[in-house]
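Example complex used in Figure S2.
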Amino acid sequence: MSRLTAFARFWWDFVIGDDWTAAAAVAVLIAALDVLAHHSVNAWWLLPPAVVGALYVSLRRMARR
Amino acid sequence: MSDALLVLSAFLASAVEMVEALTIVLAAGVARGWRSSLAGVGAAVCVLTVIVAALGPALTALPLRDLRLFVGSLLLVFGLQWLRKAILRAAGFKALHDEDAVFVRELERAQSADRLERAGLDWYGFTLSFKGVLLEGLEIAFIVVTFGSTQGSIPLAAAGAALAVVVVGAIGVSVRSPLARVPENTIKFAVGVLLTSFGIFWSAEGAGAHWPGSDAALLGVLAFIIASSFALVALLRRERRALVPLEAET
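Predicted assembly (315 residues):
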């Protein structure tokens, strides 16, 4: 079990890193884009500024640690 | 254009990871002997080759839209990690990577470890090199597989990575010391920008969005992420000066 935990922990750190909220924000944004596309809204403009916003929030959180 | 960015991304990411791996291999070689250290490098390269050879075809079997959604999302999350650390370093919130200090630390550890022989190799020297190359190389393998599969050209991405390994390896062999003068943070900043831009571009396409100007829009995304990243560095620097006024005076 501890090896399995260590394996999962490694991949979590490798992909997600030290701030999971940024990864969660990305998941929510892409899901929103998918929903909009299904309603025939071409929301290409959504992701770039929203990702920068999520990055800023993440940076402030990390800077205050 | 996309192919050039693909090679550039693989080259830069691989170069910076190779610099870090080289420091560990040098420490293992100097302290524990070159035979064990180089055997560790060889074993790790074999494992990395298997990972790329196995994952590459598996990913390319996915439909293009699903592949772009999956790989784009992964790259975006992964790229934000690189970019976040690079911005925090550039703004002074995180210490810059110091290869000389890492080398001294690894050398001291390697010199004080007990000697244990397995299959005629010093086990500590072997595992130190193996782990160092495997862990640093995993990021290279990840970028080669994801970029290469999405662009439909894993060999091109692998060529960019291989070029970096050869260039950094050759310099490392000739100077026989850690490559402390390589501007690691600048390169990591550039890689973070590239991964984030490609991640945004592909994940949006995978989610069903259509970019105006098709592939040319990638340049627009790239320019936006570069400008935003510099703005975030400036903003954080100002916040840091406000938080630590005494440090700003010195």
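The beta strands of chain B are 117-118, 121-122. The first strand of chain B starts at residue 117 and ends at 118.
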